[in-house]
Amino acid sequence: MAASAHQLRIDLTVNGTVHGIDIDPRTTLLDLLRETLDLTGTKKGCNHGQCGACTVHVNGKRVLACLTLAALCDGADVRTIEGVGTPEKLHPLQDAFIAHDGFQCGYCTSGQIMSALAALEEPWGPDDAAIKEAMSGNICRCGAYPNIVAAVQEVRKSAEGGRNA
Amino acid sequence: MHEFTLIRAETDEAAVSALTAHPDARLIAGGTNLVDLMKEGVETPTHLIDINGLGDLDRIEARADGSIMIGALSSNSSVAWNADIQSRFPMISDAILAGATTQLRNMATMGGNLLQKNRCFYYPDHNARCNKREPGSGCDAMDGVNRMCAVLGTSDQCIAAHPSDVCVALRALDAIVHVKGVEGHRAIEFADFHKLPGGTPHVEFDLAHNELITGIEVPGLPFAANSTYLKLRDRTSYAFALVSIAAALKLDGDTVDDVRLAVGSVGTVPWRSAGAEDAMRGAPATAATFSKAAEIFFEGAKPRAGNGFKIELAKRAIVRVMETLKEQAA
Fold this sequence. Notes:
Shape of chain B: globular
Low-confidence stretches of chain B: none
Structural class of chain A: alpha+beta
CATH class of the domain at 224-329 in chain B: Alpha Beta
Order of helices and strands of chain B: EHEHEEEHHHHHHEEHEEEEEHHH
CATH topology of the domain at 224-329 in chain B: Enolase-like, domain 1
Oligomer: heterodimer
Number of strands of chain B: 12
Strand order of the largest sheet of chain B: 4-5-8-6-7
Strand content of chain B: 15-25%
């Protein structure tokens, strides 16, 4: 994208770090994360809001970074997959994806995990059908769906057990 | 994407005057539809006016008279999960949750949903003719792939089906669209808000370029507590409707006392039939009555080669939904 005469400056927090960045207003949050901040864990799949690979959290809600203009994120708090767990200490959901083989090629996985993290905080029901509906915005072309549901269910049940304990 | 200048509106008045000053400006809230169409080069605004900072427009106010005022900037998710919406107008919640995905519903606003563009395959395709995208160019859907297109309210210029789920529920509930313009406030009946294509399919709304939707009022309707939304589609989730039914039913013993019925994805606008509802009021609440109403609903329907199946599908869906509501009411 050529430099624009319409440049503007935004401040946003990504995974706890504050960034002040000059952007072309056409820049999507997805491109900002990947190309400017080198946070390439968030993936570009369809780039049209149909696949969910670019799912991130903005101000605590899961959204599609490909349809989000970065210019509208001034002052926002963004969380990406890089802000979930560490290689040494994975988030329980990441552990569950490994335990249940919730991926094959892995391209959709960061979006799946960001979606599932949010879904566990949303008022969905406890059964598999509810999990599937909650996760329907994340496409997995390898077809790991049953394993993804199993991974989400494991974390949901253990969180539920924790609350009831 | 074409270049644009971003304007951040702090007040309703500032948004309206920015629109007035820039004839090719667009308002942006959630942006789920607009940003996508800007990427496709279908929307090429010179200015985007960010209205996310307008205070109070994201409120959902349940009033003592049974009505609910939904601020235009309320996200689809916040409306769907709102306890008052769920208890007073379950069809609204059902309809929203049947559409798109959580990520999109978290972003998309109610005002934006009203302005959602059609999903006819030919609309965003610059290699195809489309009278909505390019007035006077023609319509490739007419004799092309028209499986998703409308059978009611069509013209020789356009057969695109209205794509929204929640607008079907809002049509059934006689919602009122509140807008603000240079001259002040205006209230528009939902039935008048979306325009039939006729000879000008690119004119889609009763909304001036420099008017801002501020809220959607859903008038009180106690029997809408017994309402639902059924969506039939090619996939179980995340697909546009083939047909959808928004309905509410009130019984008096075994008789239909009152009813609301709107059908989605069969019309060029969210569709309602006074004749179909009149045929049910005062009649026995039986499959025969519901079936007769469904016949009346589709009188005058004009299928094209690929979408005739919608008529029978919708008729059966109407009967199924009315039977479900009858059981719930009993």
